[in-house]
Amino acid sequence: MLDMKYIRANPELVKAGAAKKRIALDLDAILALDERVRAGITETDRLRAEQKNASKSIGAAAPADRPRLAEEQKAQKAQLKEKEEELAKLQAELHQLLLRVPNVPAAEVPEGRDDSENIEVKKWGTPRQFDFEPRDHIALGEAQDWIDVERGARIAGSRNYFLKGDLCLLEGAMMRYALELMVSRGFTPLSVPTLVRKDIMVGTGYFPGGEEQAYRCDERDDLCLVGTAEVPVTALHQDEILDLKDLPKRYVALSSCYRREAGTYGKDTRGLYRVHQFQKVEQVIVDVADAQRSIEHHHVIVSNAEDVLQALGLPYRIVNVCGGDLGAPQIQKFDIETWMPSRKGYGETHSASRFHEYQARRLNMRYRDADGVVRVCHTLNNTVAASVRMLIALLENHQNADGTVTLPACLRPYMGGRERIGKPL
RNA sequence: GGAGAGAUGGCGGAGUGGCCGAUCGCGCCGCCUUGCUAAGGCGGUGUACCCGCAAGGGUACCGAGGGUUCGAAUCCCUCUCUCGCCGCCA
Fold it and tell me: φ and ψ at A383, to 5 degrees?
């Protein structure tokens, strides 16, 4: 959420930002409503002050006079109540509108309508030239009895799966490697709730707007399944005023992630590219409101992810996500796409976002700066390693002609020291 | 799931209808006293919003939301959370 004061001071910037993101926004309606709200506040404050003074003088008056004076206050009270109700309604309306005002994208975000216009900013590694006919991860996984999508679907519907045997272990190995790498870099590991209250979904910017993508248990329990550990981790310090000396906060969390994938029928139906549930290690940074420091953190969290991919020996590219493909909350986003032979292309495995105070303001997460002034934090996050999508890349890129898969050195300690998995087919 | 106790400022802890945005203590900040240290004295010390060029003024907030009242931290209702007890489950 943007600060109303900022919007008032920079309406053209906000409008241009929404336009760059291709998000419809009637800012003038918001500005007009804001005027009415402020006038309402001034008015109710004045009436309340009168009311308070009158009450005080009743308390000070002779007891005999009090009933008469109290009687006279009743009309005032009714008027105040009416104004208050009117104001509360306007404020609620304004708040709802503000929740939908998109964050202003950075100047370095490219113009563009959709992901086809994202700009590649880096490429690492060379897609492997196979001297045999490579299998895709499903063919390989089923032949090795590593993947069972049929029973997954029977038990939980389409886009659900079982991982078995060494692939199950490999998933754990990759998660553990990613987690430990981040811990070695000073990130605090967290085990987090994956069911969160609806206001946390609002606080992190997923609601309103993303309701269709979330599994919801809120009818009975007001809880939603998170699509990423970003949600509980970013919200960890909700409603807190943090000490400057404790910033930045660096967290890493492994969690299950749940996505409804509404509106993707017929898209990526083969294999495990698009699934309803997966494991992910996520990194989150909370720091002071300093644009330059946010940019530095952004680079760091991207390079953390790059280090994982490089250690895994997976070719990837980084794209600077264009305005039209950017979500409402982000200032800027870099997606990392990993080479997947079966797609004959790069598939998104990481998403590094910079928010400035958009999330922190909604979460009411602040800190006291060196001058003692309370300010709203900045937040960022990025994937470290995402299961299934990166398992696809691992299996497909590192497969051998005989159907075995060579393990990257960094994962071997987590796989009993083995160099490869799978039986010759 | 059942019966109970509690929730006040950074912390501790008063406060049972008007003099309470809240005594006091600790902590913290500033100044002062005192060779140093220890100790002491004085003053200050929440968040948000509105009006104002500013100085300043105003409003709200005592877990959350409603209610009673001219007036609520204080009375009533609902909810949440915390703590310990019983039951159930792991």
Answer: -65, 145
Which among A288, A283, A301 has a CA at the least distance from the CA of A377? A288
The whole-angstrom separation of Cα A257 and Cα A231 is: 10
- Active-site pick, A259, A354, A361, A362: A259
- The H or E element containing residue A216 is strand A216-217
Q: Is A348 a catalytic residue?
A: yes
Strand B proximal residues, A:233-252, Cβ < 7 Å? 241
- Could you report the per-residue pLDDT of A39-95, keeping only the tens digit for each? 999 999 999 999 988 888 888 777 778 888 888 888 888 888 889 889 988 998 999
Q: Of all nucleotides in the shown strands, which has a C1' nearest the CA of A51? A: B70
Tokens of A280: 């992910």
A48 Cβ nearer than 7 Å to chain B strand: yes
Residue nearest B70, CA–C1′ metric: A70
Q: How far apart are CA A34 and CA A4, in angstroms?
A: 8
Strands of the sheet with A216-217, listed across from one edge: A195-197, A223-225, A216-217
Q: What is the pLDDT of residues A62-74, one digit of tens each?
A: 777 888 888 888 8
Cα(A273)–Cα(A257) distance, integer angstroms: 14
Q: Model ipTM? A: 0.82
Give yes or no for a contact between A336 and A318, defined as CB atoms under 8 angstroms apart. yes
Please give the domain boundaries of chain A with CATH numbers for all domains.
4-99 (1.10.287.40), 115-421 (3.30.930.10)
Q: In what order do the strands lie in the sheet with A119-124?
A: A119-124, A316-320, A332-340, A345-356, A378-386, A277-287, A249-258, A188-190
